[in-house]
Amino acid sequence: MEADKINQVFSSQKSGREQLSAPTTVETRIEHLEKIRSWIHENRSNIQQALYRDFKKPVAEVDLSEIYVVLSEIKHTIANLRDWVKPKKVDSPLAMLGSKSYIYYEPKGVCLIISPWNFPFNLTIGPLISALAAGNCVIIKPSELTPNCSELITSMVSDLFPPNEVAVFTGGKDIAQNLLKLPFDHIFFTGSPGVGKIVMESAARHLTSVTLELGGKSPVIVDGKADLEDAAEKIVWGKFLNCGQTCIAPDYILVDETVELELLEHMGRFIDKFFDPEGEGIPASHAYARIIGENHFTRLNRLLDDAREKGAKVEYGGVANPDDRFMAPTVLSNVSREASIMQEEIFGPILPVITYSTLPQAIRWINSKPKPLALYIFTGSTDFSKSVLQQTSSGSVAINDCVIQFMNPNL
């Protein structure tokens, strides 16, 4: 029955696109974005409550990492859209003397957005903004692991758009599979590389273009000349934001062996400052989220146990409570490179720290793994950061900071 409804909505969006004599106007697209912006302002508390019910996401984190980012994206898009849609004149070669050449931009058509659970509002509405700004129709499949946020997004879309423009289908893997059978014009997927392969395989059957925003093991390199206190503060914030469930969170640290102990000391102090300032214990903190679900909680415990069995030392944390899906911010040293935690993306509040003696050694370690989504460099030396930039490749880089590159809409 659900498959029939999916097919019906898809057909209505497809036929609606085909009946348009011209793409929607810039004014219409901006109206769509302004409607979303107004709805967010009017429903800010509802967004906060939905995310707290899903995994106790703190209000301040919701404001910063879910709402503010989306509102910034809307503002940036509205400010630039008229320029983006203009035909661009390009040079013609001498052999075509007398001719004029232009690039025209047109909508893809009907797009599918499959969004994740870790930033369920931001990483659903952000791609929706881009799709609508480009004049597309959209079907959204939010994560089943955040049912309260998915319900909120369904309510927002039904309030603002008819189904032949934007529609939402909630549910599990079966819904995603039914959607992926359809010949969309573009698919935007955010999630794990494993599922990304499935999405790409399905898209290939229809020659559908895809955008895959995947995770990975994002490293941090800390140079011996870095400001260690500043580095520790920013690493702790970037890692344990959203309980470590962030695709661009630091996954592991490579630190100059001469400064490891000092860095670890600073990190422990900042964990206490951020999450236990009253000394009542981190479980009592209103500034720390929870693990999204039981399966993810079990996986993280397995990684932690395996690391300990292979010799890792818990420098901080290591405490977990399955009843509340609570896992303390955990920092590990003496981590074996053969441990599972160094092979899999962690996606949780566990941070392995590994020492290096020379920069080439650290770079070889990074380059031995798949290209990360993010790379973080902490150093007081311009030459050091240039060497890392020139000899590694990643989706994004921040120097002497963590995670904030995502906040810049120009990037």
Give a structural overview.
The mean pLDDT is about 95. This protein has a seven-stranded mixed β-sheet with strand order 10-13-14-9-8-15-16, sandwiched between helices. The chain has a five-stranded parallel β-sheet with strand order 5-4-3-6-7, sandwiched between helices. Helix 3 packs across helix 4 (about 60-85) and helix 3 packs antiparallel against helix 6. The protein has helices spanning about 1-20, 25-40, 45-55, 60-85, 120-135, 145-160, 175-180, 195-205, 230-240, 260-275, 295-310, 360-365, 380-390, and strands spanning about 90, 100-105, 110-115, 135-140, 165-170, 185-190, 210-215, 220, 250-255, 315, 320, 325, 330-335, 350-355, 375-380, 395-400. Strand 4 (about 135-140), helix 6 and strand 5 (about 165-170) form a beta-alpha-beta unit. It is α/β, with parallel strands linked by helices.
